[in-house]
Amino acid sequence: MSRNTNDTDWLWQSAMYITVGVVILTIGSGIASAAIVAFEIIGAILSLFIIGGSTLVGVYFVLRGLALFLGKIVDGERIDL
């Protein structure tokens, strides 16, 4: 399967990184809330680890997407849609 690349492939990649990061953050907080409701005290302790992990991974993807986007803009790439 060949990948069709064009001049705005970097824009799509940065948008996907940011989207994946936000989705991971949202899902992590939802799972943490469900753990609190389901397991009470143990769920509250478990939710700290769930929120911590999803926050680290989600923020990583958001920052990676922003770095890619801003790096290409600073390098003089144009957004031609």
Order of helices and strands: H
Largest sheet: none
Strand content: under 5%
Span of the ends, CA to CA: 24 Å
Low-confidence stretches: none
Give the domain tally. Answer: 1
Structure classification: mainly alpha
How many strands? 0
Name the helicity range. over 70%
Mean pLDDT: 91
* Gyration radius, rounded: 17 Å
Helical run tally: 1
- The coarse overall form would be elongated
Keywords: Membrane, Transmembrane, Transmembrane helix
Transmembrane segments: 12-35, 41-63
Keyword list:
single chain; mainly alpha
Would you give an account of this structure?
The protein contains 1 helix and no strands. The protein starts with 8 loop residues before the first helix and ends in a 7-residue tail after the last helix. The protein has one domain. The longest helix has 66 residues. The protein is mainly alpha-helical and 81 residues long. Helix content is 81%, strand content 0%. Keywords: Membrane, Transmembrane, Transmembrane helix.
Q: What's the structural blueprint in terms of helices and strands?
A:
Elements: H1 9-74
Keywords: Membrane, Transmembrane, Transmembrane helix
Transmembrane segments: 12-35, 41-63
Concise account of the structure shown:
The protein has one helix at residues 9-74.
